[in-house]
Write a structure and sequence with these properties.
The chain has about 425 residues and is an alpha+beta fold. It is built from 10 helices and 12 strands. It has 2 domains: about 140 residues, no CATH class; about 260 residues, Glycerol uptake facilitator protein. Helix content is about 45%, strand content about 15%. One of its GO terms (cellular component) is plasma membrane.
Length: about 425
């Protein structure tokens, strides 16, 4: 029976159209036209078909003419359907054919494709391997869209190395642009600095995304661990944080190495003693302060720690909201995936241009704390940590409050509407 012969029952959820049973000729255990490994568990006289799922509590599927209940394990991120075996047959190969029109997950997206899985009945809890050769152009295709989640095909060590390097690149580009502006009046305009920051973020994402998912921000990793645990388990949170903070320290050290003589000359010309209260004018190139010490128009503005933390949380919430929106494959306007890093970078640029005069726009604890540690060790001491208003902690706590809030708002306000829209589109197409 071909998948195209399957009848569609509109009473079933459109995300999972049907599971059909068919006995084929004997064949080795394999998965046809499926990119990542897919697990088939055969136990006794039932088979459990597992697929990653997203926010799907229950589903009704058909197995031939039999309706079966499929349950979604939100924690494991799997859809499990108890499927009866075929009647006795000379063949010892069981084939499950799943026609999936709109079954899309945070990790995988199948475009009106048919996935055929062949498995020997004697195998138990086996892991399938991808096909040795790519499918032809007309074959079903599967597209990875876990762009900003943790990748599953790289070891945790390599993912952490990528996070460290990516965060280091952000600091080199972004904090480096502030260093250049402080010591040489290059990119003196706020928008010029913001644009360099945005491009730096985009390039760091492009450089590391295929390995780690390019969080490059402890606040972003925290939000993914809370709201996307099937894609980024909490067990990876601490290793990612360590890697990101190390990347911030390395990036800050490299910036100090490059601009160290320029800072010394600037301090000598302007009679600034490093470590004195006035040295905040140069320390701001490494860490953030509120308000921006370099903005003469705001020099008399009083920004208290509570307001500064609110600004940091608010800006990070917007950033996280946009990240989830851009990486949600159900958005129809997001066509060119390779442009998503630049959209995120542009978001960072806009947020910097809006809020940098108030708090210097951190949004990233690793970007602030790493260079701040370097500055403290390089002679800025208490001006760097804890800072003139003892406010260094604001740039660590504020973003880690804001990112989960942004993710929560997206899941409450946008995500349900997209789910209903996708279901309605699938029902219209099937009718």
């Amino acid at each position: 029976m071909r998948s195209s012969d399957a009848s569609h029952d509109s009473s079933f959820p459109p995300r999972v159209d049907a599971l059909h049973q068919h006995v084929l000729s004997d064949a080795p255990y394999r998965v046809d036209a499926v990119a990542p490994p897919q697990r088939i568990r055969l136990t006794g006289f039932s088979a459990v078909f597992e697929r990653y799922c997203n926010h799907l509590a229950n589903a009704v599927c058909t197995f031939g003419s039999v309706s079966v209940r499929c349950e979604c394990d939100q924690n494991a991120g799997t859809l499990q359907c108890e499927v009866p075996h075929a009647p006795p047959s000379p063949s010892n190969t069981l084939s499950l054919v799943a026609k999936i029109d709109d079954f899309q997950t945070p990790l995988l997206q199948l475009k009106t494709s048919t996935v055929v899985v062949h498995a020997h009945r004697a195998l138990t809890d086996a892991i399938a391997s991808p096909p040795p050769t790519p499918p032809p152009p007309c074959a079903p295709h599967l597209r990875l869209i876990d762009r900003f989640y943790s990748r599953r095909n790289a070891s945790l060590l390599h993912q952490c190395i990528a996070e460290c390097i990516g965060t280091m690149l952000i600091v080199i580009f972004g904090v480096g642009s502030v260093c250049a502006a402080v010591v040489s009046e290059a990119q003196t305009g706020l928008w010029q600095i913001a644009v360099v920051w945005g491009f730096g973020v985009a390039l760091a994402i492009l450089a590391t995304n295929s390995v780690s998912g390019s969080h490059l921000n402890p606040a972003v990793s925290l939000a993914f661990a809370i709201f996307r645990p099937h894609a980024f388990p909490a067990s990876k949170l601490l290793p990612y944080w360590i890697a990101q903070y190390m990347g911030g320290i390395l990036g800050g050290a490299l910036n100090l190495l490059m601009f160290g003589p320029a800072f010394a000359n600037f301090e000598a010309v302007n009679q600034i003693e490093r470590g004195s209260p006035r040295s905040v004018l140069t320390a701001r190139a490494f860490g953030e302060y509120f308000p921006d010490p370099g903005n003469e128009l705001l020099s008399t503005l009083s920004v208290n720690p509570a307001f500064a933390m609110m600004v940091e949380a608010w800006g990070t919430a917007i950033l996280m909201f946009v990240i989830l929106a851009l990486t949600d494959h159900r958005h129809k306007l997001i066509k060119a995936q390779e442009m998503i890093p630049f959209y995120i970078g542009f978001t960072v640029s806009v947020l910097i241009s809006l809020y940098a005069p108030l708090t210097q726009a951190g949004w990233n604890p690793a970007r602030d704390f790493g260079p701040r540690v370097v500055a403290a060790l390089a002679g800025w001491s208490s001006v760097a940590i804890p800072g003139p208003k003892n406010g260094f902690w604001i740039y660590i706590i504020g973003p880690k409050i804001g990112a989960p809030i942004g993710a929560l708002l997206y899941d409450l306000l946008i995500h349900p509407g997209l789910s209903k829209h996708a279901a309605a589109s699938s029902s219209t197409a099937s009718s």
